[in-house]
Structures are given as C-alpha cells and as structure tokens.
Design goal:
single chain, about 325 residues, eight-stranded mixed β-sheet, four-stranded antiparallel β-sheet, 12 helices
Length: about 325
C-alpha cells in the first residue's frame, strides 16, 4: 500500500457550521455552536478535539453521529457524502461512545444484550451461536475477561471503567472504521483513566479503527492522539501533531488550557495575567473579530474587528491568531 493510500482520509469535514435558534418567536437570535469547522481523519488515526465546555466539541460529535444536521458545510465519510449514507450504516460504521458509562447502558439487560443486538443488526450473516462467540471475543478484546462470564453479568455488577470498556465493545460489534469517543474518561477515577486511553491506542493499532477523541484534557489528548484540534467558542484556534501543539503551543487559548491543567511532563507556560480569563462566551449573533479577544492577554485593536484565519506556523501546525503572525 502506498503512503498516499495509507494517509487517505476516511472522514472529511468541510466548513461545517451549526446554528441554533434561541429565544421565543419574537427573537431572531442565533447561537453559533460551531463555525466553519474543517478537518479530516485518516485511516488508523486518533484525532483529539480539545476545548472547554461550550467550545463546540460535542456539537461536532452529534453532527457526525447524525443527531444534528449541519446548517452549512459538507461531510464526506468513506468516500460518500453524508446524505448518501443511510442511518443504520452510518451508526454502524461510526458509532458513538458516550461520556457517562452509568446512564448509557440499560441496567435491565445483561451485558451481552447490547453486543448481541448490535451483531444481529450489523452482522446478519452470523448464526446465533456465532454471534455469542463473537460477543465473547469482543469483550475479551476490550479487557473484560473471561468473556463468557462477563456476557451473563448485569451492568450494576461492573465498575465505571468496565462499563466504559463495554461501551467500546458494543461500538466494535458493528465493525466500525471510526469511533466517536465523547469524553469517555472524564467521569472515571484518575487511577483507571490510563487503562481506557491505552485501550483506544490498542484498538487503533490492532483493530485498525480510527477514533475521534473529544476531551477538555490536554494531557490525555497528548498521550493518546496523533493530532490535536483546539476549539474555542465554535472555532478552531490551533491544530497540529499533538506533541508539537503541547510542546510549542502558539495560541493564547491553548496556553491557557495548559496553565489550568498542569502536567509535570508539559513545558512551563507563563501567561500574562493582564488578560480577562473569565468564562467562555455563548456565541449568540456573533460580532466580527476574534472570539477569544475578551480573554486574551495579547489582544490588539484589529482582533476586535477582524476574524483571524488559520495559518501554518510550522509543518502541519496551524494557528488562528494575529499575535502569532507578528
């Protein structure tokens, strides 16, 4: 296989915007949850979407999962436009692993119920006995052993980490090429998060599945992801190889994220405290200009009137900031 084939995108998001109408019938206000989002994910690649709550990460995940329809823009998955893919196929090839392992699994049924149901829906060629064998194999692939015993348990008998592993097993049951992992470790104890991150890396290398990892945690994104996309108020402000973004962050917002979630492995980042480091804005009827300007310690006059665009500052490392281009 050539390098170009190995790096062929399986997902291309092109200038996707999602706008929600807010207020009553008299109001024409528009909430811009995501604006002009463009990125791709290649085969067997983990890409992290990083940002605070309200940055637009989960909105993008829900658009890709088919829960929301984009207001503008286009999405191509495995060579087909989204509109050409039926929902069953889309949800099988690109399943979603939810943030909360305690509410995303039906407590009434045994562990095997969801996996066997998914196998029956997406692998109709398998007999009942073959589906059971496949379910046991899937459970063991995600570290739930012995699989035949796990299959018979109820969700309340599993820990939070085990439930989240079950979520990945159910996602694998549909034979996906891309898994949407929406904050999959944020509700787990710190001591068991690394196990889930290692699981995602194993799935990428052994099962050749790509993962979109959605998180607010730069340290975990650096550990697990090949590339990182940093979002702020619905806009991409920085993107590039994870090690480059973390080792040499260029956008003031990326530096802010690093300063608020320190990691002893990360370089010390000194942030000028003259900037307003308040809450991220709700982007309703946005005015022209950089959305980070009210919080930015490097703000200039043109930042308040002109929206900066992504520009390359090093190989495959792009930043949207006038101060960086100075």
């Amino acid at each position: 296989m050539s390098n170009s084939e190995m790096n062929k995108p399986i997902l291309t998001v092109d200038k996707v915007t999602k706008v929600f109408k807010v207020g009553n019938f008299r109001s024409q206000a528009s909430l811009h949850a995501s604006d002009d989002i463009t990125f791709n994910i290649n085969e067997s690649e983990i890409v992290a979407l990083v940002g605070e709550s309200g940055s637009g990460k989960s909105t993008i995940a829900r658009i890709l999962a088919g829960i929301y329809k984009p207001t503008q823009g286009s999405i191509t998955f495995e060579g087909k436009a989204f509109g050409e893919i039926d929902k069953r196929t889309l949800r099988g090839r690109m399943p979603l692993v939810f943030q909360d392992p305690f509410s995303s699994i039906n407590p009434v049924y045994r562990v095997g119920h969801g996996i066997l149901r998914t196998l029956k829906l997406h692998r109709s060629d398998l007999s009942k006995e073959e589906r059971v064998a496949a379910a046991v194999e899937l459970l063991e692939k995600v570290g739930l052993t012995p699989g035949d015993e796990m299959l018979k348990r109820y969700p309340h008998e599993l820990s939070g980490g085990q439930r989240q592993r079950l979520g990945f097993a159910q996602a694998l049951a549909s034979n996906p090429s891309l898994i949407l992992a929406d904050e999959p470790v944020s509700m787990l104890d710190v001591s068991i998060r690394i196990g889930l991150l290692n699981l995602m890396r194993d799935l990428r290398s052994k099962e050749k599945v790509s993962i979109l990892y959605i998180t607010h945690d730069l340290a975990s994104a650096r550990y697990v992801a090949d590339r990182m996309i940093v979002l702020y108020a619905g806009k991409i402000v920085e993107e590039g190889p994870s090690e480059d973004v973390v080792a040499t962050p260029r956008h003031p917002y990326t530096k802010l994220l690093m300063s608020t979630a320190p990691d002893p492995r990360l370089p010390y980042v000194e942030l000028d405290n003259t900037g307003d480091l308040g809450e991220p804005p709700k982007v309703i009827n946005p005015e022209p200009g950089c959305r980070f300007a009210p919080r930015c310690p490097l703000v200039m006059d043109k930042c308040r009137t002109t929206d900066p665009h992504l520009q390359e500052v090093s190989i495959k490392h792009n930043v949207s900031c006038f101060a960086v281009s100075q």
